[in-house]
Every structure is written in structure tokens, then in C-alpha cells.
Amino acid sequence: MADLPKGERAADRAIARAIARWFEANARDLPWRLTPRDPWLSVMSEIMLQQTQVARVAERFGEFADRFPTPTAMARASVGDVLAMWSGLGYYRRARMLHACACAIVEQHDGVVPDEARELHSLPGVGRYTAGAVASIAFGKPKPLVDGNVSRVLLRLHGVERAADESGVQAWAWERATDLARASGKLVATYSEGVMELGAMVCTPRAPLCASCPVSKHCRAHQLGMTDRIPKPKTRAIRKPLAISAIVVTDRRGRVLLEPRPASGLWGGLWQPPCVERDAASPISLAKSLDALGVDGLIETQEKPTRFEFATTHRAVTVRVWAAKAVHADRIRRARGGSAAWYSVDSLSDLGLGSAQRRMLFAAGIASPGPNPGQSRRQSPKVEPKDL
Ligand code: ADE
Description:
Layout: H1 9-26, H2 39-49, H3 54-67, H4 71-76, H5 79-86, H6 93-109, H7 117-121, H8 128-137, H9 148-158, H10 169-183, H11 188-201, H12 220-223, E1 240-250, E2 256-260, E3 271-272, E4 275-278, H13 286-293, E5 299-301, E6 306-311, E7 315-326, H14 329-336, E8 341-343, H15 355-363
Parallel strand pairs: 1-7
Antiparallel strand pairs: 1-4, 2-3, 2-8, 5-7, 6-7
């Protein structure tokens, strides 16, 4: 970090104060921005906001707040209930983490959200960013937060022509964010939420609105006309290919056979039609799929699959879907064993189905594809290793 700039106390105080005042006047009206803040709703909204657009969380937050107004209410529900409500929000591991977080608050903290960042950070689903956000916004503690938006604001303020994922840059950003959170004093809650809002609404990746920025006079990138070059673009991770062959079987009553995925890993615990997977882009033949699934001879299959592509954070998935009719419904269910069961189309909304799984059913002529956040551009991707 030797070659990265340090802040100055007086300048940091002026910057933090300007951001806090700007936020007080310009904050978007979002459903979790209550006065006073409810710490549990703050935890829940921050976990929902990891990896999902603000607008989408804003649409869905109310149902979660009504159904799970306290950690105790969520801990009393099953993880399946939370997963089912999470349907369409993507990154389903967060639903499991949120439920585990509620249980940990009930078991270890008597149902009361702890106010120290260290204790918050030890909760499931709460990484350093989320701990900093809840500690500062809900409890007024001088704790920092750094995500993609905040890194960009800091790099531009200091005129550092680096990518946010370059070695040393994240450690530097956390150090600068710590200085600024301390310098914000009593205004830390509005400063904290203000700096994320500034990154989302003004100091945007492209065409930032410098004329509306409360700290443009402190901004080196603005002074040097370099906002279009700072930060440097990230090096894109290559997504590994995954081929999935899905067999969507319906019985004579139009019910569809579904089974849960393993609890951990990609789409952990979500429901799906019987699927075969391979770490390759090349297709898996129908014959191989039927054989692997143990349903050969028990179903009548369409000849041609429907194909679609799906991208997750780490995988480029090619899905081939065969619609099939059950010849021996009971034998098929037994052949699949475990928790495989027949579900009517009406009951699908009570199950945790991801966007990819919905699209499999849609490709076979069942249900609607529903929202597809996993495929949309995200406003402020936050991947905290512990959170995902
Ligand atoms: N992104 C992450 N946390 C947020 C918050 N509290 N408000 C708006 N956007 C956010």
C-alpha cells in the first residue's frame, strides 16, 4: 500500500460531512429506510441486497418484513419457507444464510441483534461489508463498509488509476473507509448509507454526474478529467461450462415430478426436475440421461430437446430440456427415490424454485418463466466470501 495515497483528517471530516448532508437531502425512499432503523430489518435488507438490484429488493422487501418482522419469527419458520419466499431473487444460498442468521440471533443473543460489528460479523451470512453497514447504519457505530460502489468513489476521490480487484487496492480502500467512518463522527449512519448511495446514483461507473456531486471539489479524478479511466476495468473471471440435461415428467393429472438438489453447492436445496450434469459444454444425450436417472422405459419422451443458456456467477450453463409423459408414475417416483414427489402446477409457488429451474419447466410447457434476476445486470455486486 506504500504507493497508495493517505487521507488527511481535516479533509476526511469535510468529505464525510458533505456526503452525510447530501444523503439527508437526496436519499431515495426505500422500504428499509425506517426512522428509527430496525436492526433486524437492516440485517435482512442488507443480506437481500447482496448481489441483487436495489429496485428488485425494494419490490420484495415488504413481504419479508411482514412475514418475518423479528429474528424469532424467521427462526420459527423452516428454511424451506424462507427459500420458497426467496423464489426469483437468485443466489439462494443467501436465503439459507438469512434463516441461519435468524436462528443464531435467537440462540446466541436472546433474539436481539448484537450492536458490535465483531459479533455481527460472526453471524451466518454477515460478511465484513454487511457487519459494517448494520453497525454504522442501525447502531451509529463508526465502522467502515466497502463494496464496488464505495471502492469506485474512493479511487476517484484520490485519482488512483487502478482496478478495484488489483492487489492491495481492497486493503487500501478498507483503510480509507475506516478513516472516513471515524471522521464522520455522529453522522456515521447517514455518511455510511450516503457513500453507498453516492456510488449508486452519482458516482456511477459510466458518465458520473459530477455537477451534482457533493465532494467534486475534493475529487482528483474530476479535477484531472479522469473519471472515465478510474477505476480501471476488472479482470473478468472466466465462467466454467456446465451441461445440464433436464427431464420434465408429467403424470396423467398434469402434475410434475420434482426433487430437491443437494443442500450445498450450485442452487443448493432448490427444487428441480430430474437432471443430469456434466462439467463440459457438450450435450448429454437423451439415452445417457435416461439411463443415469434410472427412468428409461418408464416415460415417453419428446425426441427433440429445448435448449437455453444460463449464466451464474461462476458457470456458463447450457440446459437441454426434454418434456416427457409418465408411463408408470409410481415406479418413476420410486426409481428417483428420496424426496422426489409429484407437484401440481398450482403448488409450485410454495416451493423454492430458481430462475433456471423455472425456465426448465417453462421450456416443457409448464408454469411461467417468472422473474430472472440471475441474468440481469446488477447495480452493485457484492460478493463477500462468507456471504455466498
Ligand atoms: N446496497 C447495499 N446496502 C444498501 C442500502 N442500505 N441502501 C441502498 N443500497 C444498498
